[in-house]
């Protein structure tokens, strides 16, 4: 009995005192349709859900049209960031005792902020604002701190100000605070205690203007979104602040967005991994002296049904001012291509289905441009392949390349790609479905592999 007790004691001590740097932690990505009753009330149809999600993609794309730079330099103020039209959220626990709130998840921006009690200009919120002054672990960020950038301060307190492309603004002060996360499945734990990370810098929102989170109309008290969780590549990103724990790596797997059986998880630490037959391509962190603020990759071209399309690869390149490029983004539902590239893809898709006796609908459905009504049940749709640098071909299966809705005579399917003005290209989450992505920001590379049917924990 004595030896058994000693072994148990050592096991418990190992579990309790295991260094935090070896810990993994995970977050569930919650589709917006599951919590946003303002934009997605329960009584709307599947077709209308698709409509609204695609509209959010168009709003998201406006950022690239309105802001001619996707880069920062030491001589410039922080540029406009995307409209808050994101489609996934995470549940966050902040402070001591923990305050729980929903934050929009965004790989296209790096700041995390939450609306705080004491705000003088507040957006409506169901529930409470963060009572930061009641937390035992909050501390104001001083003006001399390196993450106080730009150096905008009042009474020695560092202030932040974010302006979104639709005119929405969030202003307030920067705080140090404790963030709490559930442990990842690789951890050896003896209960379901949360992992706590102290001293994380984030924005405490005290003034908000025109904040609609992409809805486009004034919000109501039914709003449950409390702020933003940014996972971009800039210094204030959660990824970089906790680089010892995250190892500058994160992974996610997105199931079919409207499938209630699909799982969507975001992993950090040892659980941010990939296996099987995966492909790897480089991230583009800079262009000249400019640091890019999104996750760009080099796209060499696009194929339809295995046939390379005559698209000039220069349409996918980052321009000298940081605009353009090809971005991997979790904030856009549909994939966005510059018009010149989109038109080539559209014409080839039309020719493909013309050979099968199908003509496109003259009506726009699901807010998309190319749709087909009442297709035969056995119609075979083509694959779409994005050719990334290094021979990393990203193959989009037909069920992820086309959106389907309706039944009987009302059945419709549409190409899940939009054409837009010459602002840049975005690989949307429809095309990313049923793939695991591993972003190794420390090595400036991203890997991906398809997963069977749905993503698992």
Describe the structure.
This protein has helices spanning 2-17, 46-66, 238-241, 243-246, 339-354, 398-401, 429-432; strands spanning 25-28, 30-31, 71-72, 88-94, 99-106, 113-115, 139-140, 153-154, 157-163, 169-181, 195-209, 225-230, 249-254, 265-268, 279-287, 290-297, 299-304, 307-308, 326-328, 335-338, 371-373, 384-388, 392-396, 402-405, 412-415, 417-420, 425-427, 435-440, 445-450. Strand 15 (279-287) and strand 16 form a beta hairpin. It is an alpha+beta fold. The chain has two domains: 19-269, Acid Proteases (Cathepsin D, subunit A, domain 1), CATH 2.40.70; 275-448, Acid Proteases (Cathepsin D, subunit A, domain 1, Beta Barrel), CATH 2.40.70.10. The strands form five sheets. Strands 1, 3, 13, 14, 15, 16, 19, 27, 28 and 29 form a ten-stranded mixed sheet that branches. The chain has a six-stranded mixed β-barrel with strand order 4-5-12-6-11-10. A four-stranded antiparallel sheet has the order 18-17-22-23. It is 15% helix and 33% strand.
Helix/strand layout:
Blueprint lengths: L1 H16 L7 E4 L1 E2 L14 H21 L4 E2 L15 E7 L4 E8 L6 E3 L23 E2 L12 E2 L2 E7 L5 E13 L13 E15 L15 E6 L7 H4 L1 H4 L2 E6 L10 E4 L10 E9 L2 E8 L1 E6 L2 E2 L17 E3 L6 E4 H16 L16 E3 L10 E5 L3 E5 L1 H4 E4 L6 E4 L1 E4 L4 E3 L1 H4 L2 E6 L4 E6 L7
Parallel strand pairs: 5-12, 6-11, 19-27, 20-26
Antiparallel strand pairs: 1-14, 2-4, 3-16, 4-5, 4-10, 6-12, 7-10, 8-9, 9-10, 10-11, 13-14, 13-28, 15-16, 15-29, 16-19, 17-18, 17-22, 21-25, 22-23, 24-25, 28-29
GO molecular function: aspartic-type endopeptidase activity
EC number: 3.4.23.12
Pfam families: TAXi_C (PF14541), TAXi_N (PF14543)
